[in-house]
Design a protein that fits this description.
It is built from 24 helices and 18 strands. The chain is an alpha+beta fold.
Length: 663
């Protein structure tokens, strides 16, 4: 407590009382860091030193004879209770710390912190006449202390976030990054933080992760390179950008300033790029809308360390995704190769005995011309012809002449597969799709992706599966049995039949829309009886083939025997001829080969073949030879020795229609 002699003078009548007191108090606190002032009982300033005026920001003259509330109402609200207690209760207060509302120079968002001492002032009668106020502004010291504590907390936060990503699963990376952005935004008082990926091909900036406070706009999903030209160039150069007030940017940043305005009024912004192997892969942004933000170097360094953690995790995720994609592609190729291997094992050296179509007849030349015309396209082909005429050889020739020849052609015999299994064989099935489905199986359409599928005996395809086949033809899509996931395929379809599909459509056994979808480019393979001049060529080709197999050398075939072969009706076509030649080669004991030919046509006709079917075959054969010309000299009606109208009536009854040729 301060108690000084007044030399017998009454304080209320002596104007120098407070001056004397002030001078002695000032002498005690001569150091400049203290602000000193004297107030009377009404809390009216009587004397103030320069430091006090500097501390509260009010000049000395503006203090004198003015009450505390008049000088600064906010200071009065904090200090007045203490000063009144000093005067009324005659109590001293030493080293009291107060938070004073109002900005600290250099930080517009902080409070002033004062350390205050306050003593009563007495006259010689020891009556309290006022109070002395000694103030030290410790705002800067307090800010440093707070900043140090905050820094330690921030370091702990960064350390925790870094530890989170040490063993994080790639599937959890995205969630952890968004959670990390939220913690940074909340701790540092940002409004939004976002992670962006830079597309190396297009230059686009793609937002992959973002956290924003409620009411704050999220960034656009994609920014084109020309949207923010300067910032984009800085990102590409791996340069950090920071600005506390967007409005203070130079005129060159016109596009960037416009963007900030359109995005809700961004005030402060900073971005930090990240690069891998010298190539910038992305960047992270920190944005403030409400207040200006300073970007001190130590903060940038720590945020860059955090961004390194995030970007490394994202690169690890991208690398894992590439590996998974590659593994999936490898598995897909493996499944396809396994499927092709299974299907090809049944074909090599069994059905595909020779890969050349032998013949010199006009009928064969016509088929070969059509084959060459359609091979280079992806058009669907429908091959008509009797059993044993070599429809598969035509299909294989089309495939081998096509751009798809590098991949194996997949064959499916629709008549050979059980009705209960044909859907699974064609389109595959998932594990557990039906009893006995112990694993997933790739179907033949999937195995033929990028190649050709040959659907032999298409007329035998069950009606309930024809719609699924139609969808593959139209859209290139199907679902495996037991799955709802759509499989996309690029398959060229070649179908073959020995049935009259037009008649099957009329009888409701074949879908009309599927028939027309298959019948894009029809090819009719003539029966062997309509290409008699090719029989010698075929016989000698087969003799040469079997000679190598059996180790026999055949030099001649009797002329009468060859003529008998040419006269024969050949209901089994080339397949029947092949069997006859093979049997003769087995029995042969010398250089001459005699092939046993049935004596009568009737004996060679299958007992299962109806009269109507024979008639249909015969009429169709004659029509093919005449180029489907019914009337006139050498027309089909003349050859068959019936009236043209009668022939047309029979054709209608038997369902014989001309397959339009595209050549």
């Amino acid at each position: 407590m301060i108690d000084m002699e007044m030399n017998g003078m009454q304080p209320m009548h002596n104007p120098d009382f407070f001056l004397q007191k002030f001078c002695k108090i000032e002498a005690l606190y001569a150091l400049t860091q203290f602000g000193v002032s004297v107030l009377d009982q009404d809390l009216r300033f009587k004397h103030v030193n320069d430091r006090m005026a500097s501390i509260d920001g009010v000049s000395i003259d503006a203090h004198i004879d003015r009450q505390l509330t008049e000088v600064d109402f906010q200071i009065a609200q904090v200090l007045e209770p203490m000063l009144l207690r000093v005067i009324t209760e005659e109590q001293s207060f030493v080293h009291q710390v107060f938070e004073i509302p109002g900005p600290v120079p250099g930080d517009m968002n902080s409070l002033r912190t004062w350390q205050v001492c306050c003593f009563p002032l007495r006259d010689d009668r020891r009556a309290v006449q006022g109070a002395s106020l000694v103030v030290q502004d410790i705002s800067e010291q307090k800010m440093k202390e707070v900043a140090q504590v905050d820094l330690l907390k921030f370091e702990a936060l960064l350390s925790g976030l870094s530890a989170t990503f040490i063993n994080v699963s790639v599937r959890d990376v995205d969630g952890k990054i968004v959670g990390g952005l939220q913690k940074i935004v909340d701790f540092l008082g940002f409004d939004r933080s976002s992670v962006w990926r830079v597309d190396s091909d297009s230059g686009q900036m793609i937002c992959t992760h973002s956290y924003a406070l409620p009411g704050i706009k999220q960034p656009p999903e994609i920014l084109q390179p020309g949207t923010l030209p300067i910032w984009n160039a800085m990102v590409q150069r791996d340069e950090i950008f920071k600005v506390s007030d967007v409005d203070e940017l130079p005129e060159a940043f016109e596009m960037e300033k416009l963007y900030c305005k359109k995005r809700g009024g961004i005030r402060s912004i900073m971005f930090i790029p990240a690069s891998v192997g010298g190539v910038v892969v992305g960047f992270i942004t920190f944005v403030s809308y409400r207040v200006k933000r300073a970007w001190p170097d130590d903060l940038i360094q720590r945020l860059r360390l955090l961004w390194d953690v995030f970007s490394n995790a994202l690169e690890r995720k991208r690398a894992d995704q590439k590996i998974q994609t590659a593994l999936a592609e490898i598995k897909k190729l493996k499944d396809r190769l396994e499927a092709e291997n299974i299907y090809l094992r049944d074909q090599i050296n069994i059905e595909h005995q020779h890969d050349e179509i032998i013949g010199k007849s006009d009928a064969v030349r016509k088929v070969l011309l059509q084959t060459e015309q359609v091979a280079a396209t992806d058009s669907t082909v429908l091959i008509f012809g009797e059993t044993g005429t070599g429809k598969e050889l035509i299909a294989r020739a089309i495939h081998n002449l096509s751009p798809r020849k590098a991949r194996a052609m997949i064959k499916v015999n629709c008549a050979a597969l059980p009705a209960a299994l044909i859907e699974s064989e064609l389109f595959g099935h998932e594990k557990g799709a039906y009893t006995g489905a112990v694993s997933r199986q790739v179907g033949r359409f999937e195995a033929a992706n990028g190649s050709t599928i040959f659907l032999d005996e298409i007329g035998e395809l069950p009606l309930e599966l024809q719609s699924k086949l139609l969808r593959v033809l139209q859209e290139g899509q199907f679902e495996r049995l037991g799955s709802h996931q759509t499989v996309d395929v690029d398959v060229r379809v070649i179908a073959a039949t020995n049935k009259n599909l037009a008649q099957a459509v009329k009888e409701g056994r074949f879908r009309e829309d599927l028939y027309y979808r298959l019948n894009v480019f029809p090819i009719f393979v003539p029966p062997l009886r309509d290409r008699q001049e090719d029989i010698p060529l075929l016989v000698w080709a087969m003799v040469e083939e079997f000679g190598k197999v059996f180790g026999k050398n055949i030099e001649r075939i009797p002329k009468k025997n060859m003529e008998a072969l040419e006269r024969y009706y050949w209901p089994g076509n080339i397949r029947e001829l092949r069997n006859m030649v093979e049997r003769a080669m087995i029995l042969s004991k010398g250089p001459a080969l005699v092939i046993d030919v049935p004596d009568r046509v009737s004996s060679s006709i299958s007992p299962a073949m109806s009269l109507e079917h024979m008639e249909r075959i015969h009429i169709t054969s004659v029509l093919e030879r005449t180029g489907w010309r019914i009337r006139g000299s050498n027309g089909a009606a003349e050859i068959l020795d019936i009236k043209p109208t009668t022939l047309e009536s029979r054709m209608k009854k038997l369902g014989i229609v001309r397959v339009r040729q595209l050549y």
